[in-house]
Specification:
Elements: H1 11-27, H2 33-44, H3 48-63, H4 66-71, H5 77-100, H6 108-136, H7 141-165, H8 171-189, H9 204-233, H10 238-252, H11 257-264, H12 300-315, H13 334-337, H14 341-362, H15 364-370, H16 377-404, H17 410-428, H18 435-461, H19 466-474, H20 476-500, H21 517-548
Helix pairs in contact: 1-6, 1-7, 1-8, 1-11, 2-3, 2-5, 3-6, 3-20, 5-6, 5-8, 6-7, 7-9, 7-10, 7-16, 7-18, 9-10, 9-16, 14-18, 14-20, 14-21, 16-18, 17-18, 17-21, 18-19
Length: 562
């Protein structure tokens, strides 16, 4: 699609953001593995190590986004949504057949591939809506990343509410819902997720709209926690459960109020469209801003002068035409970003922080049982709620830091890594009294690192090939999950053998702090390493943020389009 075909006006971007919220809530289905993991373990007859590898399949699929990252510059977002919907039907459909018993016993490797494919649908859906909305709102990247990733964080709580209240704790019914429900959401929203003309001038009403959306998402999170607690305190009737579900749906619809308000009460003040001089006869990259990240560098005038001299020399044939390498803060090609130390530092920090956190999420049911918890759905809802707050708060707080203090967003990652050191040690105690506190702290830290990584990568390396860069760094999640899950599963199975070697009890669960104690100590040590790396990264990129946000707001470049 050519740049001229982008949707104009101030309302379509907000309508697209509202649709993206629904896609993100539906597309976070990979986080529900803990809800059906026990049923899957029974259906396949596998031990904890092999179950952990199935959890890794979800992590691999959810973060294997290089292909959608490449195609997001070539295909309309609706096509990416359709591909994601198809992957969801095939993946979750196969898993549903295995759990429901409607099909003959399926081999383990097939279920592994099915879960990987099912979770990969989230990569397609997330790339489609995240890249599109980051380009539609280039001046509010932190807010956009926080909101969209925040709703993904709430996805587990939304599905948990449906699982306990409507589906009556049926894993087979949940998998059937994922098989049919997620594609239905994609089909209903695909028309609205589209590239639009962005506003390149600061707008107070835009900030107010983002604040309204953030408040709406917080209300949804608080409501979900309240509904989950209510469901465990009293016995709810089916009618009341459906009423609670209806309220939840209305809260997810909250962002639609913004385009509705723009329709009913149109403003006379229009956002400034793109400068026609910035568009080179329509020959821009598909769905791209003419320039997508700041480059108000101190030596800009010298660079411009040298560029003019080089152009004159090229015209005379004295100099062979070469492409200037981009500076941090400008648009990078993917292979250029791979050569930067900051890229690999960000990758390593993300690998440690999120890779270790997702290991706990995948084993949350077993961690709860080991600590003496009877019902682990509360822990999952709590993690989801705190994960949401971390993602939303990470976007909002980091936005404040860069605009008010020109501090890199990664300063927040330093704080979260320090907290995670002590959180893993708290987990290692294996006490039920500290379980929920540990889960809450980990959920917040886990969420912050998601939203901060997205915004940081877009500011350091631009939006031109943001899909590739973001999805490559996201691969740190499954790599970390593979390594740490393997360790956790191995230690867990060894302890199970010790506890049940002299008994014939059919309960193959592990109880006590020794089940995950060593694993948590290792993760605490990794968080120490992550703290050091994130400090180095923050110090290195501080000058970039001083240049990008020196004026108190994000500076759109004058000549960084490639």
């Amino acid at each position: 699609m050519r740049a001229g075909a982008m949707k104009a006006g101030s309302r379509p971007p907000w309508l697209g953001l509202s649709a993206a919220v629904w896609v993100q809530v539906a597309g976070g289905a990979s986080s529900t593995f803990a809800l059906y993991s026990h049923a899957l373990k029974v259906a396949l007859g596998v031990n904890q190590s092999r179950l952990a590898m199935l959890a890794v399949a979800c992590d691999v699929g959810d973060n294997l986004g290089l292909l959608p990252g490449v195609l997001c510059n070539r295909l309309h977002p609706a096509v990416l949504l359709l591909i994601g919907a198809a992957a969801c039907v095939l993946g979750y459909g196969t898993t549903w057949l295995a759990v429901s018993g409607l099909a003959p016993a399926l081999p383990y490797w097939l279920i592994w591939l099915a879960l990987c494919l099912a979770a990969n649908s989230g990569a397609w859906l997330g790339t489609a809506v995240l890249v599109t909305n980051m380009r539609n709102f280039p001046l509010s990247r932190g807010a956009v990343a926080g909101i969209l990733k925040g709703y993904v964080g709430l996805s587990a709580a939304v599905y948990t509410e449906i699982y306990t209240g409507i589906l009556h704790d049926s894993a087979a019914s949940l998998l059937l819902l994922l098989t049919l429900g997620v594609p239905a959401v994609c089909l209903l929203t695909m028309y609205f997720v589209r590239p639009c003309e962005p506003s390149l001038a600061p707008n107070s009403s835009e900030q107010a709209h983002f604040l309204f959306t953030q408040i709406g998402s917080v209300l949804l999170g608080v409501y979900l926690v309240g509904a989950t607690i209510l469901d465990h305190v009293v016995t709810l009737t089916d009618a009341l459960n459906y009423c609670l579900l209806a309220i939840m749906v209305l809260l997810i619809f909250a962002p639609v109020v913004i385009p509705l308000k723009m329709t009913l009460f149109p403003s006379n003040q229009r956002k400034g469209p793109l400068d026609p001089s910035d568009i080179d006869n329509g020959h821009t990259e598909p769905f791209l801003l003419p320039s997508s990240s700041g480059s108000n560098l101190a030596n800009l005038e010298d660079d411009d002068a040298s560029d003019i001299d080089i152009l004159l020399a090229e015209g005379e044939g004295a100099v062979k035409q070469t492409r200037r390498r981009p500076h941090r803060g400008e648009d990078f090609r993917f292979r250029e970003a791979l050569l930067k130390a900051d890229f690999w530092l960000l990758f390593a920090v993300y690998f440690i922080g999120v890779g270790s956190g997702v290991t706990i999420l995948n084993n949350l049911a077993q961690v709860g049982i080991a600590a003496g918890a009877v019902d682990t759905t509360i822990s999952l809802s709590l993690f989801s709620f705190c994960n949401f707050f971390g993602r939303l708060g990470g976007g909002a707080i980091s936005e404040y830091l860069v605009r008010s203090w020109t501090l890199p967003r990664t300063a927040l990652i330093v704080c979260t890594q320090v907290v995670m050191i002590f959180t893993y040690l708290l987990f290692a105690l294996g006490l039920y009294a500290t379980l929920h506190v540990s889960v809450a702290l980990l959920g917040i830290c886990y969420g912050i690192q998601f939203s901060v990584m997205i915004s940081t990568s877009s500011e350091l390396f631009g939006l031109k090939q943001f899909g590739k860069i973001y999805n490559f760094i996201s691969m740190g999640n499954p790599i970390g999950a593979l390594l740490f899950n393997s360790l956790a599963g191995y230690i867990y199975d060894l302890e199970v053998q010790k506890q049940h070697s002299t008994t014939t009890d059919s309960d193959i669960a592990c109880h006590g702090p020794n089940c995950f104690g060593f694993t948590f100590c290792v993760l605490s040590g990794m968080a120490c390493l992550g703290t050091l790396l994130s400090i180095v990264l923050t110090v290195r990129i501080r000058p970039v943020y001083q240049m990008l946000y020196g004026g108190g707001s994000f500076s759109v470049p004058r000549g960084s389009a490639h």
